Amino acid sequence: MALVPAETRADRGTGIEQHRRTVIECDAALFTSQIQFRHLLSVAESRNQTTDLLRKLRDDVVVGSVGPVCSRALRAAGIVPDVMPHLPNGPSLVQALADYYSMFTPPEEITG
Fold first, then answer.
1. Strand partners, 30
2. Nearest to residue 28, comparing CAs of 56, 67, 52, 50?
3. Whose CA is closest to 69, among 27, 43, 36, 94?
């Protein structure tokens, strides 16, 4: 499973193409604030890749949202979060994602 930081840092020299490929190739994207998601959208818009990004997030990626404010921003873009923790913090979001995946993974694969 690959986790992708939602906020890209093209301005720090990491390269937007690397981030675009990472989002497209990842299994899950966790958003810890609506600002992260809006920034990702603005970067995609500047590269004329908004449609591809939104389609991938809607159809191919498990999307996690830290809480209701972040979830509203995602829903406004047509993305329904698959995962949202009971407590709005990073560790709870990661645990919620692990719980989500455990529902679909046979027990023998979890225990290894």
1. 5, 64
2. 56
3. 36
pLDDT string in tens for the chain (112-residue length): 334 444 444 444 455 555 555 455 788 999 999 999 999 999 889 888 899 999 999 999 999 999 999 999 999 999 999 999 999 999 999 999 999 988 876 766 656 5
**What does CATH list as the number for 3-111?**
3.40.50.10090
Give CA angle at 59 (56, 62), nearest 5°. 85
Q: Where are the beta strands (DSSP E) in the chain?
A: 3-5, 28-31, 62-65
pTM: 0.74
Each domain of the chain, given as residue ranges in start order, spans: 3-111
Euclidean distance between the first and final Cα of the chain, in Å? 15
Sign for the CA dihedral angle at 70, 53, 80, 109 comes to: negative
Smallest CA-to-CA distance from 97 within 12, 19, 4, 10 is with 4
